[in-house]
Design goal:
alpha/beta, 9-stranded mixed sheet, 4-stranded mixed sheet
């Protein structure tokens, strides 16, 4: 079957308001003076779409987007970058968050939960039609993507998801963990990362589970074997960790969709994630295919 899309990204479209703060946690005070407050389009689904597109993969993004200022920013981001966007009307408004960013690049995100409703759905017929002409679907854990999982499975497309800072217990993430062929997540909230990774593989469809661990690198579970993926030294000063996990996911998917092994794909992910840490929170700079391959060759020659 011919395909028109390499990566179909579901969900995760929205706007972040970036606030640089003197430290995290932020001490209680009646007020704080900060150098700048800036809103820009770009949440998890946007960043994965931007990352895969920059790497040369044909990318299509679908999510619910409001007829509001935030929605205009999301639509403009995709239009300016040349990424196809199916914007399903969202009467409750476009997803938005506030990111407090510390001097060391760490962040605290505050999400507006009022921008979704229990009855929200991505139109099944639209999702199915897009899935049938896609090689792969990456599903964000934002509402209402869980309901699209059976539609994607019926269409026969492979699925990946990023569980982010899942604690291994919260029931909301279970459907995503169970239905995806490739599961990514962070070790940040995991008491026992290996145990959680093996549980994901045993209870669901996942054949590849990748857990990112910040400066410690990442861990890959494939074919029953757990291996460590070394961290990559960022090419410049770290200014913000926002989007690093999404860039890792984009690099990993690029590797797998271009025929590399899971281990090599994880190396691509580590390179892309390290680069993302050097991009200011208000920016959206992503590695191109040539840049990624050049940095991968440098690392290979330096072994």
């Amino acid at each position: 079957m011919s395909t028109e899309i390499d990566v179909l990204v579901l969900g995760g479209a929205g706007v972040d308001t970036i606030v640089h703060v003197p430290e995290l946690p932020l001490p209680y005070a009646d007020s704080h003076m900060v150098p700048a407050i800036e809103a820009r389009a770009g949440q998890t689904g946007d960043f994965v779409a931007l990352g895969t597109h920059a790497l040369g993969l044909r990318t299509h993004h679908i999510d619910m987007v409001g007829d509001d200022h935030e929605g205009d920013l999301v639509r403009a981001l995709h239009r300016d970058r040349g990424i196809a966007l199916t914007a399903v009307p969202q009467p409750a408004g476009t997803k938005r968050a506030v990111n407090l960013v510390g001097p060391d690049g760490r962040r605290l995100s505050l999400y507006d939960t009022g921008r979704s409703r229990d009855g929200d759905r991505l139109p099944p017929d639209t999702v199915a039609a897009l899935a049938r002409v896609s090689r792969h679907a990456h599903v964000s854990i934002t509402q209402p993507c869980a309901d699209a999982l059976p539609v994607l499975r019926s269409a026969g497309v492979t699925i990946s998801t990023d569980l982010h800072d899942w604690d291994g217990v919260d029931a909301y993430h279970e459907a995503f963990a169970r239905e995806a062929d490739i599961v990514l997540l962070s070790t940040a909230a995991l008491a026992d990362p290996e145990k959680t990774m093996r549980r994901i593989a045993e209870r669901g469809r996942a054949t590849e589970v990748v857990a990112t661990a910040g400066a410690e690198g990442a861990y890959l579970l494939f074919d029953g074997e757990l291996t460590h993926v070394p961290s990559v030294t960022p090419p410049a000063a770290i200014v913000d960790s926002n989007g690093a996990g999404d860039s890792f996911a984009a690099g990993y998917l690029f590797g797998r969709l271009t025929g590399t092994t899971p281990a090599e794909a994880a190396r691509y992910g580590a390179i892309a994630g390290a680069h993302a840490c050097t991009v200011p929170a208000t920016g959206t700079g992503f590695l191109t295919r040539d840049e990624l391959m050049a940095r991968a060759e440098v690392r290979e020659s330096g072994r």
